[in-house]
Design brief:
821 residues, binds copper (II) ion, alpha+beta, Immunoglobulin-like, single chain, 12 helices, 5 domains, binds CU-O-CU linkage, 6-stranded mixed beta sheet
Length: 821
């Protein structure tokens, strides 16, 4: 619902500008119409158009205000201040001045229509107008005039001069006096219209040129254009500056338009006015159009220039600005660098692992070729099984991956220096190089690892794997099976699958429908896009660890059994209840553990939706209509678990409602909750903006209307209790991933989370949704906080969580070749 309002808001922003453009043109050209009849017709039309445009404006204003009410002030403050307020001001002016002016014009027209019958002057006037038309319609000019005159059809007015004779407060109608008074006043010099139609009486012309009729409508157009521009490319908060500036521009322009229109009316109502030549009439719009084009081009040029990333992005926070979240400014804590925040460097590691990255074409088990990047020669990389608290050493070796490699332990809260982000916590490892990571996994659960250098390109092609942390001494009972879902770019199908030349793929943002990999995507569970069956004895407890290593949320079906959701993002659920027929949705980068006891019947896990839906049919909407790559289609990959010798067919996918963690399981005490006082509160509005990223024009995915590196870093001090509100007013899902910390979900759309504590490191925020989360700032460093749709991250949907006093010696950017996304 809210999601639709945000979409409608974009649509009506544009509609309002278009409608007011027509209304303004109609109002302005009314006074220079050629014939009496045309003025009459256009006046009627103009009033209708103004009324309709006022309705469009009301919808636009209503949407902005409604959104602020429904999604929170911060989610729509810019729409209210920069669109609703100026539009309302201009709209009120139209209602108060323009609508009565149109009605007044109608009366003047009626009055002037009677004039020919009542006095000698009109007769003379008609006589004078005859010659112009005589050439073609000699002999019956009066007849033509009468046929078209409103007097013939409209009720006669007792006072031909009309009640408006004495004008409004500004004397706007005074000019009409001499002409319409019926006396031997100066004759109107207008030539007859085409076909010998009667000319436009001066009184009518003057009433049509009334500033009250014209200026508010044109001011409304100015407001609607500014509002549309500021909706499509909204400024960053605070909005006070732009708001004041916009109102000032509106006031100054309206003033100028008023002066101009007063002049114009004098000219138009004066004796001897002649319709300007065609060339002159074309000159004005030409000049206007040229200046608008020049202005737009200059604006775009500036935006383009500002969007280009500097060659190095380094220093303390990688960003110029800090968001304090209502807490104290930086400068209190002792200075440290990321390099000092390492894991256990002196202890003897209990476990040693080597990950070797190679680039080569590989074949999935199901036969498809992938121009792959692989860890240890497998797709996906090897499943790492670690033990909580055990000192682990991982040696990363880059054999020949041109892009460079790092390893990030997604969801594992390691010390900052071990976090594996190129340009933030280390330099990318070049071909032939190596890097050693040391850490003790602090919690058991289901995680994953992946390269964090040009991640949108290399993760798609294979530089990732599952990472499971077990409790010490706990041996998994029954079947403990990890299932990684990933959409592979297939090299031997349509498209070339991958990024030839090794450079980062250049996406086109929201409008391009690019999936970052190009080519056809096929979803695999593990290394196969085909159905697969495994034997599980009846009565065996089964734990399935689902990992979504994809950009978009994926929807799963587990059919043939009831089950429990035993963990979310590696965090155990308290007292999970039994579920049947529920589908499961996992954020891009998220994890979910299931458990059930195998019966005699087969149980089948499938992924619903087509991975290509995002790039093909849902170009604009990224991840598809309901954020799941389309609803109906089922991918061919599936995993069937059944006792040996079962002959029953594998069950069809379930079609029930999607599992919702908000109220699932039993609440238990948490280290903090919504009732606590927060040291800092951050508001992150996820949106769209038409603009540039690094010199490329695109529909941007923004945070508080900005993209990297202009999104202020969130500043915290060690020990702070931090609340973050995410609101998604964009057209796609955003799986928001915070490094180094886990977040506790407090509420969604204002509804409190009441089940088992919902801890997450990768929270999918769907269009229209609002989440409140909290975390304790207990892991100092400079941390990434970004959208895990890695294509969005590549295009700038990245910010940092920065601890007071912590700086990084590493730099991102072209110069050093570190490109985290
Ligand atoms: Cu899984 Cu910053 O990433
Ligand atoms: Cu995103």
């Amino acid at each position: 619902m809210v999601e639709n309002l945000f979409e409608q808001n974009l649509l009506w922003a544009v509609l309002a500008a278009v409608f007011w453009a027509y209304a303004a043109r109609g109002a302005r050209t009314l006074a220079t119409r050629r014939t009496d009849r045309s003025v009459r017709r256009r006046a009627r039309l103009g009033l209708v158009l103004v009324t309709v445009s006022l309705l469009v404006l009301a919808v636009r204003v209503g949407l902005a205000v409604g959104l602020a009410a429904a999604a929170g002030w911060r989610a729509a403050a810019d729409f209210v201040l920069l669109a609703a307020v100026p539009l309302t001001l201009a709209g009120v002016a139209v209602a108060v001045f323009t609508v009565p002016a149109y009605l007044r014009l109608a009366r003047v027209i009626r009055a002037s229509g009677e004039a020919p019958v009542t006095g000698p002057a009109p007769a003379e006037r008609r006589a004078e107008s005859v010659p112009a038309g005589t050439g073609r319609f000699g002999g019956q000019p009066a007849g033509t005039g009468t046929a078209d005159a409103p007097a013939a059809s409209e009720p006669s007015h007792p006072h031909p001069a009309g009640p408006d004779r004495h004008g409004g407060p500004d004397g706007s109608d005074v000019a009409a006096g001499p002409d319409a008074s019926g006396g031997p006043a100066p004759l109107p010099p207008f030539p007859a219209g085409p076909g010998g139609e009667p000319p436009v009486p001066t009184a009518v012309r003057a009433a049509a040129a009334d500033p009250r009729l014209v200026v508010p409508v044109r001011a409304c157009l100015v407001a609607a254009v500014m509002a549309a521009a500021l909706t499509l490319h909204p400024p960053t908060p605070s909005y006070t500056g732009p708001f004041v500036l916009e109102l000032a521009v509106l006031a100054v322009v309206s003033g100028a338009l008023l002066l101009r229109q007063q002049q114009r009316r004098t000219t138009l109502a004066a004796a001897g006015w002649a319709r300007p030549s065609r060339a002159r009439r074309l000159l004005r719009p030409a000049v206007l159009l040229t200046s608008v084009l020049l202005f737009t081009t200059a604006g775009c040029g500036l935006m383009w220039r500002d969007s280009r990333l500097p060659d190095t992005l380094g220093g303390a926070q990688h960003t110029h600005r800090l968001d304090l979240g209502g807490g104290p400014a930086a400068g209190h804590d002792a200075a440290r660098t990321v390099d000092a925040l390492t894991g256990p460097r002196d202890e003897r590691p209990a476990r040693r692992i080597t990950l070797t990255a190679t680039s080569r074409t590989m074949t999935l088990k199901s036969g498809e070729k992938v121009r792959a990047l692989a860890f240890n020669g497998t797709l996906p990389g090897p499943e790492l099984r670690l033990v909580r608290g055990e000192t682990t050493e991982v040696v990363l070796v880059n054999r020949n991956v041109e892009e460079g490699v790092t390893v990030h332990w997604h969801g594992v809260d390691v010390p900052n220096a071990e976090d594996g982000v190129a340009g933030v916590t280390q330099d990318a490892v070049r071909p032939g190089g190596r890097h050693v990571y040391r850490f003790k996994p602090p919690r058991a659960g289901t995680f994953w690892y992946h390269s964090h250098q040009q991640s949108s390109s290399v993760v798609t092609r294979g530089l990732f794997g599952a990472l499971i942390v077990d409790e010490p001494g706990a041996r998994p009972q029954g079947v403990d099976r990890t299932v990684v879902a990933h959409a592979w770019p297939i090299a031997d199908a349509r498209g070339d699958g991958g990024s030839p030349g090794g450079g980062p793929p250049r996406g086109g943002g929201a409008l391009s429908g690019q999936n970052g990999a190009g080519g056809l995507l096929r979803t695999a569970l593990g290394d196969s896009t085909r159905p697969r069956t495994e034997t599980v004895a009846e009565g065996t407890p089964v734990r399935l660890r689902l990992i979504n290593a994809d950009n978009c949320p994926r929807t799963y079906s587990l059919a043939g059994t009831s089950f429990k959701v035993t963990a979310l993002d590696g965090n155990e659920t308290e007292a999970p209840s039994e579920l049947t027929g529920r589908r499961l949705r996992i954020a891009g980068g998220g994890r979910l553990d299931l458990s059930y006891v195998q019966s005699a019947a087969p149980v089948r896990l499938t992924v619903i939706g087509d991975a290509n839906a995002s790039s093909a049919s849902h170009g604009f909407e990224g991840c598809g209509e309901d954020g799941t790559y389309g609803a109906g289609r089922v991918e061919t990959a599936s995993l069937t678990l059944a006792p040996a010798g079962t002959t029953a067919p594998a069950p069809a996918p379930v079609d029930g409602p999607v599992f919702d963690p908000l109220h699932y399981g039993r609440p238990v005490a948490t280290p903090f909750d919504a009732a606590d006082g927060f040291d800092r509160s951050f508001h992150l509005v996820l949106g769209n903006s038409v603009g540039f990223f690094d010199g490329r024009p695109m529909m941007l995915w923004t945070v508080n209307n900005a993209v990297y590196p202009d999104i202020p870093a969130l500043l915290v001090k060690e020990g702070d209790l931090v609340r973050t509100t995410f609101v998604n007013r964009s057209l796609d899902d955003h799986p928001m991933h915070l490094h180094g910390h886990r977040m506790l979900v407090l509420s969604r759309d204002g509804e409190r989370a009441t089940g088992s504590p919902w801890w997450t490191d990768t929270l999918n925020v769907a269009p229209g949704e609002r989440y409140e989360v909290a975390f304790r700032a207990d892991n100092p460093g400079v941390w990434m906080d970004h959208c895990h749709n890695l294509d969005h991250a590549r295009d700038g949907m990245v910010l940092h969580l920065a601890y007071d006093g912590v700086t990084t010696p590493y730099e991102a950017g072209r110069a050093g070749g570190n490109h985290p996304e």
